[in-house]
Amino acid sequence: MNWMYSYFDQISATFGIKSTYLHVLFKALVVIAGTYIAWIILKRILFSFEKKTKDTEFVQDNQEFFSVIRKALFYGIMLVTGTYLIRLFQIYLVEKIFHALLIILLATPIKDLVLALMAYLENKIADKTKTKVDDIIFDLLRKFAGAVIYATAVILALDILGVNVMPFVAGAGVAGIAIGFAAKDTLSNLIAGVLLIIDRPFEIGDRIEVWSAPAGSATWGDVIDIGLRATKIKTTDNIVIIIPNNEIMKRDIVNYTILSTKIRVRVNIGIAYDADIKRAKDLIIKVAGAIEWVSKDPVPKVVVRMFGESSVNLQLRVWINDARKRMDTISYITDKVKEEFDKSGIEIPFPKRDITIINKTLTDGKTK
Questions:
Q1: CATH number (domain holding residue 292)
Q2: 1, 122, 183, 245: most buried, per Cβ within 10 A?
Q3: 193/151 Cα distance (integer angstroms)
């Protein structure tokens, strides 16, 4: 190396150039060449590793993983080399700008790497669970991950440039409070959405009661989407009702399928006082037992609930294997029981009134 510096000194004396400049230029060229060689070696090592791991599940699910690593390594080498060259040429003013710019550039491969890891975890965790709510959580994390990483990069870059970020943070806090008051309903729905995800009173596919259904329409339906702001429920009339999450959290939630699809259905049936109760019970149980989706264990049961004004009120209690057939069960049993009662002469009562007309004869012989 000394002979090289001696050679530079001779050239400097010949052309009247300070030898220091040539020494600095030589160091810069050596660093650039060394950086290029190091980048080539790292690329080959990374390519070899990628080739050996291409059949692994993680690499197959994340095809862009090595592309992100290459980009991150490139920016890392640029950071080291650029910092050395800036200090070599003593351009200290550019150093902070260079560092701030590279931090912002590094935010992109970091975001891509985080998203790749999240996608891998989603395939390992969310796709193997029965609930669909985990998918919503990962979708939420994906949406906010990029914003958080870029915001952090900008704050770090401004701090390196010597900009006091505290006023911006304080201003953002005040603006956040103002926005919070202006959009309190939206924020309330967002918070309620997060609580729904955590508490899980229902999941996508569950059948629940709908209290806000249009008058005269079906009052229950299946959950088809749980969003951060609202939940979508499709009723049995094929109507989609979008309910704000804040409203859902204020109500009692009736979930028919949270434990299992098997539920008990009660059907009220009235018979006349002079009807044969035992015969009526047998006919009702016969009708219920003929339905294919009715559970055989426990068996259908008929009880006498009360004595009405004009009827003996019976109640059929029957378990069905599919909660979604609740209304079909009630309709079918009511229809068939009416047919069986008509065949057997069992009267289904209706209100009756006996009117008695009394004629009174007055003392003058006139009828009142």
A1: 3.30.70.100
A2: 245
A3: 25
Under the phi-then-psi rule, with left for phi > 0, alpha for psi from -120 to 50, and beta for the rest, what region is 90? left
What are the DSSP E strand ranges found in 247-357?
A: 263-271, 301-307, 312-320
Instruction: Give the model confidence (pLDDT) of 311-332 as tens digits.
Output: 899 999 999 998 888 888 999 9
How many domains does the chain divide into? 3
User: What range does the domain containing 89 cover?
Assistant: 2-176
What pLDDT score was predicted for residue 176?
62
Neighbours of 359 (CB within 10 A): 6
Q: Please compute, for residue 130, the number of CA atoms within 13 A of its CA located in the half-sphere on the CB side.
A: 7
Residue 271 lies in a domain: yes
Q: 213 and 64 in one domain?
A: no
- Rg of the chain taking only CA atoms, in angstroms: 40
Query: Tokens representing 311?
Result: 């009827």
> What span, in angstroms and rounded, lies between the C-alpha atoms of 61 and 368?
99
Pair (39, 132) in one structural domain: yes
Residue 287 lies inside a defined structural domain of this protein: yes
Asked whether residue 162 falls in the same domain as residue 273, the answer is no
Instruction: 136-143: list long-range contacts, CB under 8 Å, 24+ apart.
Output: 136/197, 136/226, 136/227, 136/228, 137/197, 140/228, 142/115, 142/118
> For the segment 137-172, what is each residue's pLDDT rounded down to a tens digit?
666 677 777 788 888 888 888 877 777 766 666 666
